[in-house]
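Task: sequence in, structure out. Protein: Outer membrane protein beta-barrel domain-containing protein.
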Amino acid sequence: MKKISHLPLASLLVRSLLALVVLSTGKVAWAQATIAPAPPSGTAGASISGWDPYATTPQYGNFSAPSYSGQAYASPPPTSSYAPPASYPPAPSTPPSSFATGPNSFYPQQPQPLYQPAQPFAQPQPSYQIPYERFMENLSFQYTFLPRLSDQADTLGIQDFETSVTALFPNFLFSEHPLLVTPAFVLHLWDGPSTMVQDLPGNAYSAYLDFAWNPELTPRLYAELGFRAGIYTDFETMNTDSLRLQGLGVGNVRLTPTMTLKAGAVYIDRLDVKILPVVGILWEPDSLTRFDITFPYPRLSKYWTTFGDRKIWWYVGGEYGGGSWTIQRYDFNTNQDVSDQIDINDYRVFIGLEATHPNRLRAYAEIGYVWDRNLLYRSPTPNLKVDDTLMLRCGFNF
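Result:
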């Protein structure tokens, strides 16, 4: 009788067991892996076909993008290489996005808030920004020019040169939101009026210290709080009226992932106007559009194009302009210099362009129209309505 060998059967059994072990190991590794290694490179890797358990992209069917720490990383918009300016911490006293981008401010000559409160409903964007947090933020300069359009006695030309820098103190009151402290200095040059009744000195100054804090109370409710103490004078007249205290309190309620209701008040401490209401709606339908329809600083911003590595935005906006200062002026009735306090109040609308760079550099330029200009005096000197004019403004911040 022929002897039957069991070696082929044993070999087949061993091979089957090894195949099961390899298959089980591959399934466990695929189920447990969070970041799979890249497939082999080179010609050997290129020749691999069929199902690859280590592939990082779907091979059959559609799979959602991998997520890390519970957050899905979205790809940037097809028309943009960088996150919108609203995500850029710095922002001076002008252009769009984030308020974070535009000229306007709650108080006159106020740098814009550097950090916008967190938007938990917004889709996360890839970060191209500087990977560290600076203590000194928002070093900025701004120039504003309101020309005299005629030689009439009731015209007033204004030039403002403003510079500021912001210090950031993280986790203020353990809130995970920073306290922003901004010292600033503004030189005001005045040309006119020349009515033989009203008079202004050639220059005045504004020096202030600004505090801003935007705590998030709930995922849908956050606040914008500010306080400012400053000296506003020509340094020829210094008294208690030269020191002005201003404040801001605004509540923000997120109605939807793209719409926020804003309401509050700003205390500006002028001769005729002490408090202005703050009310409006912020609507951001996408990452390239921002409609901040809020009095007294409405701004509509829209992404335009990308030039090199700079994103260009255009925007339109408005603001309540002017300020208040103590001055020494010439009194034509007594023919001598006297101390006084004056308000310059006006309304402004403008259109502008803003360029933002991933390294946090912003530059902007705008042109606008200024109307309802009024010059008010604390003394019995009659007030004066000044002729309308244009506004040219430019600046940068880093």
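The radius of gyration is 31 Å.
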